[in-house]
């Protein structure tokens, strides 16, 4: 009797995944959009606000209110910070080559608020 290998992606798993993907792609886009809109979004893809880099303000759509952009550094840090857009643009600009893009290091912010112990 042949010994079964543990782990890995087998033919059966591949076929199940392929079937689910083909089923998902065959769903009409309106039905797919209904379900996708209910998923939690962790990126800024919705047009609920606009950022004005000239003033550093956030303008909310549907309201006439504005508020200043603030980066809050908190949690497990030694010194919690609130940095305005003017504070952030005052840092020296630098970039380092990343994997396939240029990475913008956050070392100035880390230097101001080091991790706590």
Automatic annotation (TrEMBL):
InterPro entries: TAT_signal. It comes from the Bacteria. This is Uncharacterized protein.
């Amino acid at each position: 009797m042949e010994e079964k290998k543990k782990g890995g992606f087998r033919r059966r798993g591949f076929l199940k995944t392929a079937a689910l993907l083909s089923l998902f792609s065959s769903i009409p886009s309106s039905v797919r959009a209904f379900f996708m809109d209910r998923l939690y979004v962790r990126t800024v893809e919705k047009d609920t606000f606009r950022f004005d880099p000239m003033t550093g303000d956030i303008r909310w759509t549907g309201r006439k209110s504005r508020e200043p952009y603030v980066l809050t550094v908190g949690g497990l840090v030694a010194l919690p910070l609130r940095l305005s857009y003017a504070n952030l643009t005052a840092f020296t600009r630098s970039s380092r080559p990343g994997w396939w893009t240029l990475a913008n290091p956050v070392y100035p912010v880390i230097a101001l608020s080091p991790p706590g112990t």
